[in-house]
Design brief:
Length: about 375
């Protein structure tokens, strides 16, 4: 893959290209979403609007490793004569620590926090308000991904990518039809006993049990969390083989038959196994996580004009399919599903839940009860012998 010298990737590219964004967030795994790279294609890019007639000559992007198509970054550089420097982090905590300790002097312009972390960042004045007169492509953002609880009115952020959680199973080992989290729990104790995996993520693990009980995935009620704990420790954990984010490898190895998974990672796994027809992904009822990563501008950004222009550039619907193809998850642009079908992307139904599914999803939140979830997760791992 060619790389323009004016686009500087400070993270080790050979490692970053193998890391799934969601696997990194879960703390484990190497899944090659970079295999969907659109590098080498003739990527057409509309002009970004210049601010006051001319942008600054540099832009510093701080994001997850390998989370943008380099061809799109290079197109922005070429069109606007802006040197783009890309630095990467491995967790929201790392991003927040960097911005907090620098007190507005980090030197970063555009950052990409996950939605559940934005309230904390706003409380500490780590993000600046956006000037939407400089981001006309915001008009193309799907209303499903605007005006979220973590940033009402999108004053500080715009959806960059989104996804949800479910599970994938081997239909040659599990013949029953599965639709719910309760089905997951039942099968983990039966056909998939000893061949089940859960995500290495306390919130997601607790959520599957809470959902099966019909409770809010973000509940802070200690009684409800105790019920979820009982289900996980007595029914699920004894049958779990591993807690992983590396869904593709688990599927390929053939040692797992039931895997809790982010939808894009499951799709990647199904594209790599020799028998994809034997695997099925479920958007389970009654609910699951709707996660969103977001474009934002750091407080004290030294190149705010270029930052706004870059965000506008990346929201261009003409190149949305290139970004989707590269990162493996959709960006929040209207009509992207139709473009994916026209582009003949494999299994678009795994990338795009139906509106019925979207309407029942619940975005994860940070709450004081996260300490309880972390303890439940640790106890579940111990019960599984992990």
């Amino acid at each position: 893959m060619g790389q323009n010298p004016d686009v500087r990737f400070l993270a080790p590219r050979t490692a970053a290209a193998r890391l799934s964004r969601r696997a990194v967030l879960a703390g484990f795994g190497v899944v090659g979403l970079g295999a969907l790279s659109a590098c080498g294609r003739n990527t057409k890019m509309a002009a970004s609007p210049a601010v006051d007639g001319k942008l600054e000559s540099k832009l510093n992007l701080y994001s997850w490793g390998d989370y943008d198509n380099p061809a799109l970054i290079d197109a922005f550089r070429s069109k606007n004569d802006v040197l783009v420097q890309v630095d990467s982090y491995g967790s929201n905590e790392e991003l927040i620590a960097k911005l907090s300790t620098s007190r507005g002097t980090s030197g970063y312009d555009v950052v990409v926090p996950t939605g559940s972390n934005i309230p904390q960042m706003l409380k500490h004045n780590l993000l600046q308000e956006l000037d939407f007169s400089l981001i006309p492509n915001f008009a193309h953002v799907d209303p499903n991904f605007t005006d979220q609880y973590f940033d009402p009115g999108n004053k500080h952020s715009i959806c960059k990518a989104w996804g949800t959680t479910g599970y994938v199973y081997n239909t040659t080992k599990i013949s029953r039809e599965m639709t719910s989290w309760q089905d997951f729990i039942d099968v983990a104790q039966d056909e998939a006993a000893g061949t089940t995996s859960l995500l290495e993520d306390p919130w997601e693990v607790s959520a599957l049990a809470l959902a099966s009980l019909g409770y809010s995935l973000n509940t802070e009620d200690e009684g409800e969390l105790e019920e979820a704990r009982t289900i996980l420790l007595e029914k699920v954990a004894p049958n779990v083989k591993a807690y992983i984010g590396n869904v593709a490898t688990g599927m390929i190895q053939g040692s797992f038959t039931l895997l809790q998974a982010f939808n894009g990672d499951a799709r990647q796994g199904m594209s790599e196994v020799p028998d994809p027809e034997n695997w099925k992904f479920v958007f389970p009822t009654p609910s699951a996580n709707l996660w969103m990563d977001n474009w934002a501008i750091a407080t004290g950004a030294p190149h705010p004009d270029a930052a706004h222009a870059f965000i506008n550039h990346m929201l261009n619907p003409d190149t949305a399919i290139e970004q989707l193809d590269y990162i493996g998850y959709p960006i929040g642009i209207k009509g992207l599903e139709e473009l994916a079908v026209k582009a003949d992307l494999t299994q678009p139904e795994l990338i795009f839940p139906t509106q019925k599914v979207l309407d029942r999803l619940e975005a994860s939140k940070q709450t004081p009860a996260d300490q309880i979830r972390t303890k439940i997760f640790a106890d579940a791992q111990a019960r599984s012998g992990a």
